[in-house]
Amino acid sequence: MLKEEKEDETPKNELPKDLGVGKADFSIWYNRIVQLADLVEKRYNVAGMFVWKPYGFRVMRNIKKLWDRLFTESGIEEMYFPLIVPIEYAQMNKSWFDGFQDEVFWVKGRGDEEATHILRPTGEPAMYPMFAIWIRSKKDLPLRIYETVSSFRYETKHTRTLIRDREITFWYEIHTAHATKEESEEELKEHIRINEEIWKALALPTIKMEKPQWEVFPGAVGAIEFYNIMPNGRMLENGSCNNLGQAYAKKFEITYMDENNQQQYVWQTCTGNGARYLVAVIALHGDDKGLILPPKIAPIQIIIIPIFKEDLSEILPTCEEVMRILQDAGLEVKIDQDMKTPGEKFYIWEIKGVPLRIEIGPKEVASKFITAVRRDLGKREKIEMKDMVTKVNILLDQIQNNLLIKVQKFYEEIIVEIDNFNELESTINEGKVAVIHWCRSGECADDLKKFEGIELVGSLLGNQELGSCIICGKSTKTMSYVARTY
Amino acid sequence: MLKEEKEDETPKNELPKDLGVGKADFSIWYNRIVQLADLVEKRYNVAGMFVWKPYGFRVMRNIKKLWDRLFTESGIEEMYFPLIVPIEYAQMNKSWFDGFQDEVFWVKGRGDEEATHILRPTGEPAMYPMFAIWIRSKKDLPLRIYETVSSFRYETKHTRTLIRDREITFWYEIHTAHATKEESEEELKEHIRINEEIWKALALPTIKMEKPQWEVFPGAVGAIEFYNIMPNGRMLENGSCNNLGQAYAKKFEITYMDENNQQQYVWQTCTGNGARYLVAVIALHGDDKGLILPPKIAPIQIIIIPIFKEDLSEILPTCEEVMRILQDAGLEVKIDQDMKTPGEKFYIWEIKGVPLRIEIGPKEVASKFITAVRRDLGKREKIEMKDMVTKVNILLDQIQNNLLIKVQKFYEEIIVEIDNFNELESTINEGKVAVIHWCRSGECADDLKKFEGIELVGSLLGNQELGSCIICGKSTKTMSYVARTY
Questions:
Q1: From the candidates B38, B63, B84, which should be mutated to test the interface with A, based on the most A CB atoms within 10 A?
Q2: Which ipTM was obtained for this model?
Q3: I want to staple B274 with a disulfide (CB 3.0 to 4.6 A). Which of A138, B53, B171, B476 is the partner?
Q4: Closest by CA position to B193, among listed B76, B281, B61, B280
Q5: Structural domain containing residue A127
Q6: Residue A103 counted as domain residue
Q7: Residues in contact with A78: Cβ distance below 8 Å, sequence separation at least 6, in sequence order
């Protein structure tokens, strides 16, 4: 039996009073945690849109800094295209637009009878007409650019903050054009490598797979997608690297003159992702007490809590000295000087997922040590102040590693290899992800549709051990994930 | 006689072939330079919108980094609000919206009969309903936030790239709320101080003035605005710091409970600016050859040009060593290895405004020196390689200072004190900016309207030397700028 997932019933115009539930009630927990950890404000009165609060913005900005650095190091240059796209650009890819025009926001002046512009749902219709202008000869290639920008979808589906929004904020898109197929394939490998670097900094294991051909953009060659498995067993698409072949080049007439004075279509790739990185961090690292941020992206890595009965001033100079020493070592540190009890402060910073707490009270001041408490394990440790920088750095590394290992273990438990078709539905309904052998035929994949909400998500890359297609029994070296998805 | 200013007649869908004109033809020069220096792509087919090219984006990103750092150091926190604003938020400030609804973009779904949302023209209608939710008691104050975002105006006026756009990119807005009037006034001083820091990094002198009361936002207390004088004598508004008093608090019901359990309206400020910083840099530092970027914001501070007849490989190792040494010293350096003549390369990097060029040829390699050429003066200097880091840093400082001094001199020449009403029009028509004594009355300011296009722009801060109002003759300590504006 499928475990019924309850949704949070806090009205959109109210803030949840407290977390109230454990992570086992994932959907409610997630909805409350994004607000209580002060990541976002959901009371903005447009469905599917929200405000980034300063703390949430800083977390997301740290994740963005990862991709900005990695793209720049790789020579992918940043640009910015207008958010408003004229309809004639969108219509260059007519089949796409015909299917898409109900899912976009239309823009018009007050007096205009008809809207002739849309808010960008995705980069291609704004970018590719420009590519067609910029690319003339081989020396204009490769063209390798990205932008980070909002995308807009007039979603009819149920929206979920950061997972399915109507304004998709912090959305990056890499778009590249190349003279040869081989070059575009190498490019895609680079995008995959970069994504793996990002996942590493997020302390999350990478699940990457090949998208089924019928789900690839029309005319494109293929796509590699990254996925996470959420605590409820559903898979979340989290980044896709698309080999567009020449499909878009042909729609947008993006050509170059080759050595023989022949016009050739370019080969293209595009890769995109955004705030869903943060969704994975929230969902996979968090616990019943709140968020747990990996040290590599935490805007506050260490929170110092002065422990005192009456007189903060006896403790504060030591707190400040500790802060200064750790800051000089390049760490992000804050002292919480609020007039609350230590217990209240622990509660707040645990919800916000600060990886390490340092407590400094009269005992610590007297004997020159600090007490460090790890957010991930709750483990306390006394550290002599003279060893502080080294020890604290070791602890942060251990937290970063431990978070990764915890998720790896969770994945190992939740991913189950199934070779009997009759076990498939019940396994997935227990909240598991199934890995099956599959013969790659559309017919066999269609057979899965009889299980409502269950999908063939994608296939493991490369050849796997030989086995029999779970549906038709044909021998195959392809293994695929079957799961519920977002 | 007013010098007729010609506009560039290059069609929007074509790139200008070359600069063609000197800076004296400012309007044409400006339009061509933003494209030829590869700052923006104007061939995007929406009026008043353009694409940021990688080089332009990097310049602008460097300017943005200035404000990000300064705001953060000041404790002003970054947030992000949705770009789509529901009409009920906009209507909370009804008088504002009644006047504004023809100047905004309306947003709707394809099936929707009526548009019920707008694209943000400015921050208040998205932010202040949230302020009303967030601010409850004195401990929620001060609230000091900013965001950098696009704003949208359905301009009916003639648009000009980066000066008047329909999508106003890289637009920051600081919004703050305070418990007392005094605190909000201190806040505004901080915003002015930050702006002055930015102007310093841009090597531009600050002209700040008090806006005439009738041009201040309705109900607000006052505003300080920054201006530049363009080469054609027109003044360009470039940043405004607004003392909103309690006007907006009353419209949006932003209140806090004071010590006596009384609801009090908050005191607010807002400060905004964006890509116009770059306009001032382009217009005031550039020359007949192109852009000149101040070293503090140049994405490439030094361009190395290898000078060789046939064999780059004899020169390249030295070029690379020089680059490495300068990069290790924290400088932004690039080698131009294109297969063009040195003359062609000089031309390109001069247009792009790279502050320092280093030429390295066989002679330089043999005798261990480099030849440095300043973009601002064209002056050549031989530098021994062993002194390179020190000498190059001195040169960059000198360029930064010289750019500032050049503009200061230009301002000294173009600003003319006038005490005879009859000389006013002719002085301004000669491309000057007039400074006059003015009694602060609206009637006297109205008298200026008989000169078409000439405005009382604003007044110098604080008391000036006593004089007679140029219009009515009344004694006054106020002096004001009178000029043509953008």
A1: B84
A2: 0.96
A3: B171
A4: B76
A5: 26-285
A6: yes
A7: A68, A71, A72, A145, A146, A147, A148, B54, B57, B58, B61
Average the pLDDT over B358-373 and give the result.
96
B268 burial type by CB count under 10 A (0-12 exposed, 13-18 middle, 19+ buried): buried
Q: Is the peptide bond before A142 cis (omega within 30 degrees of 0)?
A: yes
Judged by a CB distance cut-off of 8 A, whether residue A52 touches chain B is: yes
Are the C-beta atoms of residues A158 and A164 closer than 8 Å to each other? yes
Dihedral over Cα of B442, B448, B452, B455: its sign: negative
- Where is the domain boundary, B257, B285, B313? B285
Q: Is B317 helix (H, G, I), strand (E, B) or coil?
A: helix
Q: Where are the beta strands (DSSP E) in B124-251?
A: 143-152, 167-178, 207-210, 222-229, 235-245
Closest CA to B200 of B287, B295, B129, B115: B295
Question: Could you tell me if B110 lies within 8 Å of chain A, comparing CB atoms?
Answer: yes
Q: Which of B264, B243, B269, B242 is nearest to B254 (CA)?
A: B264
- The pair phi, psi for residue B61, each rounded to 5°, is -65, -35
The 10s digit of each residue's pLDDT in B435-474 is 999 999 999 999 998 999 999 999 999 999 999 999 999 9
Chain A residues in contact with B78 by the CB 8 A cut-off are 54, 57-58, 61
Q: pLDDT of A192-231, one tens digit each?
A: 999 999 999 999 999 999 999 888 888 889 999 999 999 9
> In terms of domains, do B358 and B236 share one?
no
Report the pLDDT value the prediction gives residue B1, as an integer from 0 to 100.
42
Percent of chain B with pLDDT over 70: 99
Identify the residue with better confidence: A149 or A6.
A149
Beta strands in B246-348 (DSSP E): 255-257, 263-265, 267-273, 302-306, 333-335
CA distance A332 to A301: 5
Q: Classify A26 as helix, strand or coil.
A: helix
Residue A143 forms beta bridges with which residues? A177
Nearest C-alpha of chain B: how many angstroms from A338? 11
Cis peptide before B355 (omega within 30 of 0): no
Q: Are residues B265 and B396 in the same domain?
A: no
CB neighbour burial string for A463-481, b if at least 16 within 10 angstroms, e if fewer: eeeebebbbeeeebebbbb
Q: Using the beta-carbon criterion (under 8 Å), do A46 and B82 form an inter-chain contact?
A: yes
Same-domain status, B93 and B236 = yes
> Does residue B132 lie in a domain region?
yes
Contacts of A78 in chain B (CB under 8 A): 54, 57-58, 61
Q: For chain B, what is the domain count?
A: 3
**Does residue B12 surpass a pLDDT of 90?**
no
Question: B129–A83: do the CB atoms touch at under 8 Å?
Answer: no
H-state helical runs in A202-254: 247-252
Q: Are B16 and B36 in contact (CB under 8 A)?
A: yes
Strand ranges, E, within A202-355: 207-210, 222-229, 235-245, 255-257, 263-265, 267-273, 302-306, 333-335
Across the interface, whether the CB atoms of B145 and A54 are under 8 A apart is answered: yes
For residue B369, is pLDDT > 60? yes
Find out whether B135 and B143 touch, Cβ atoms under 8 Å: yes
- Using one digit for the tens of pLDDT, what is the confidence trace for B171-219? 999 999 999 999 999 999 999 999 999 999 999 999 999 999 888 888 8
In 3D space, the residue among A333, A384, A275 whose CA is nearest the CA of residue A40 turns out to be: A275
| Residue whose tokens read 């949705």 | B82
- Residue B183 and residue B49 share a domain: yes
- Based on the domain organization, do B347 and B479 belong to the same domain? no
Same domain, A31 and A97: yes
Give contacts of A54 with chain B, Cβ < 8 Å. 77-79, 145
Query: CA-to-CA distance for B349 and B355, rounded, in angstroms?
Result: 9
| pTM across the whole model | 0.97
> In this structure, are B117 and B248 located in the same domain?
yes
pLDDT band per the 50, 70, 90 thresholds, residue A136: very high
CATH code for position A108: 3.30.930.10
Are residues B446 and B323 located together in one domain of the fold? Answer: no
